[in-house]
Amino acid sequence: MLLDAKQQSKPLNDLTKEDKDFIYRNLLTLFMDWNGSDSATDENQRADIQMAVFYCIGLLDQVKSNKAAE
User: Fold this and answer.
1) Phi-psi region of 16 (alpha: psi -120 to 50; beta: other; left: phi over 0)
2) What is the DSSP letter of 24?
3) Which of 10-14, 27-31, 38-42, 45-49 has the lowest mean pLDDT?
4) In the predicted model, what is the mean pLDDT of residues 19-45?
5) DSSP string, 29-67
6) Whole-angstrom distance, CA of residue 70 vs CA of residue 59
7) How many domains does the chain have?
């Protein structure tokens, strides 16, 4: 499933559960594939990318929990 141009520009609050699941799955897959590659040799870069991935996942979780509280 690819996101079309409309979906790519949605605010986080407007993402559906399917959109969020797609983003979660692909962020984690991308990170795990990269982490095991030859490109992931620099420890500082690895830590920076890991922090960025988990920051994005944290944003998705925050939106999900804010919606549940409403």
Assistant:
1) beta
2) H
3) 38-42
4) 77
5) HHHHHHHTSTT---HHHHHHHHHHHHHHHHHHHHHHHHH
6) 17
7) 1
Query: What is each CA distance from 50 to 53, 65, 67, in whole angstroms?
Result: 5, 22, 26
Residues ≥6 apart with Cβ < 8 Å to 29: none
In one-letter notation, the amino acid at residue 27 is: L
Distance in angstroms (rounded) separating the CA atoms of residues 34 and 22? 18
Domain that holds residue 51: 5-69
User: Do residues 60 and 20 lie in contact, with contact meaning Cβ atoms separated by under 8 Å?
Assistant: yes
pLDDT-based confidence at residue 5 (cuts at 50, 70, 90) = low
